[in-house]
């Protein structure tokens, strides 16, 4: 099985634990989104459940690997998933999904003595689902191992974190991200690739999503608002054109995340008054981003909100 880029240290820790004979039952895979933590979890689970001399199916269809993620939002979305098309998902991983998993754990694994359960991601668990999961983490069935992918481990309950061993995934160097982007998106322009690498902060997945969602023009307009302000609303008009008349939630969320990243980048270099405004804009954008998946936003008003927060933080021409 080929190694996943940038995962040498997690692999060393995982395999050392497997070889040690006292494998911890709960693992928390942490790091920024887009580093390949879910792919690592699947590959690691396949190594864990494999039995010598027993043919193993692919990890994606292995009977002893259970993956819990957000389900399709509707029956129509379920059909889109079956057809390999993009589909919308529900807001969270439900308690019913966790309880169905727990019922499976009362039976023996199919091909060997071990079973792996992957949560992609644990950040998406609804509150009652977290409480249900805690019971399994506190009293894990023999041969059951839990791999919890988390992009924001600080948001998980301390009782969940304390019952897991942490595997940390680090951002990759920009040069490595650029190499991956060039290999996977050769048709992208040099400008798009450069902007994607800069916006990704070491996350190949984030860079790929940047290009797939054609975010270079959006980033350009966001930067202009921060650097030049927008007293006549013309920049917000250009931002609206870049985002599009009917953007989906993913594109709006990507725009918010870009705006947050730009605020963080500028705040690190700004003078104190400007820095304070950027930090406040970053805070407001974070709150706004949390609301988007759960509310029905008018796309035009959402763009005005994003642009308005950046315009309020923009440094005046005199630098004060």
TrEMBL record:
Gene Ontology terms describing biological process: DNA-templated DNA replication
Stretches assigned to coiled coil: none
The name this protein goes by in its record: DNA polymerase III subunit delta
Species in which this protein is naturally found: Croceicoccus pelagius
